Amino acid sequence: MKKTIKLSITDLNSHKNTAEIIRRGGIAIVPTETVYGFAVDAFNIDAQKAVYKIKGRSYNKPLILMTPDIESVRILVEIPKKAFKIAKRFWPGQLTLIFPTTELGKILSGGRKDLGVRIPDSKFMLKLLKEIDKPVFTTSVNMSNKKSAKNIKETLDFDGIADIIVDGGQCKFSFESTVIDMVKFPYIIIRKGCLDTNEILKYI
Fold first, then answer.
1. pTM of the model
2. pLDDT tens string for the chain (204 positions)?
3. Straight-line distance from the first to the last Cα atom of the chain, in angstroms, rounded to the nearest whole number
4. Are the C-beta atoms of residues 179 and 61 closer than 8 Å to each other?
5. Are 171 and 94 in contact (CB under 8 A)?
6. Cβ distance 116 to 96 under 8 Å?
7. Taking phi first (over 0 means left), then psi (-120 to 50 degrees means alpha), and beta for anything else, what does residue 13 get?
8. Which domains does the chain have, with CATH numbers?
9. Measured between alpha carbons, how far is residue 203 from residues 30, 83, 84 in Å?
10. pLDDT at 199
């Protein structure tokens, strides 16, 4: 069992310390406004595999790309024009949009033809993502098919497994993001989350 570093989002350099661990190929548990997530370097395939193993997650289920801005993921996904209008309205926010992958995106995702992208509405996460200066792959903190961690206490099953756990207390929404598949028209709502789908439909 490894020694897991524990920090709080109130610690002055928590985002810098977390970014350094992720850049080195480590696995971080971080708070977002929806639920807690595992976060790893999007360009580190070994780190991605480690998260799948920890969760007992099927490789058929993709990880989500988190980014501080839409431009930084354009080397990994192809973004339709309509998405920019939606992104301008709902990002940062509790919305995940699924886009077709580029050739590099396919390599990094094990050949997947599509990937979900989200810009979180969390001051800590945005600072962390800007510090890393590249996308990260994320997935909820839980064992596969179990409830997602919504507070720091629920992350502690992974103490000694993750390299760092960042305490953000209780997540603001404590519910997963809404997911829309924008690979082809008509676009499909894959998951109803904490963002009102009726509001989103006005922009699709």
1. 0.96
2. 799 999 999 999 999 999 999 999 999 999 999 999 999 999 999 999 999 999 999 999 999 999 999 999 999 999 999 888 898 999 999 999 999 999 999 999 999 999 999 999 999 999 999 999 999 999 999 999 999 999 999 999 999 999 999 999 999 999 999 999 999 988 999 999 999 888 888 887
3. 48
4. no
5. no
6. yes
7. alpha
8. 5-201 (3.90.870.10)
9. 30, 9, 10
10. 83
Nearest in space to 94 (alpha carbons), one of 15, 172, 6: 172
Please tell me the predicted confidence (pLDDT) of residue 201. Answer: 80
Task: Kindly state the tokens that stand for 123.
Answer: 């001051």
> DSSP string spanning the chain?
-PPPEEEETTSTTHHHHHHHHHHTT--EEE--SSS-EEEEETT-HHHHHHHHHHHT--TTSPPEEE-SSGGGGTTTB---HHHHHHHHHH-SSSEEEEEEB-HHHHHHTTS-SEEEEE----HHHHHHHHHHTS-EEEEESSSTTSPPP-SGGGGGGGTTTSSEEEE--S-SS-SPPEEEE-SSSSPEEEE--SS-HHHHHTT-
**Residue corresponding to tokens 């064992």:** 143
The answer to whether 114 and 183 are in contact (CB under 8 A) is yes
Q: Which pairing describes strands 5-8 and 164-167: parallel, antiparallel, or unpaired?
A: parallel
- Burial per residue of 126-153, b for 16 or more beta-carbon CB atoms within 10 angstroms, e otherwise: bbbbebbebbbbbbbbbeeeeebbbbbe
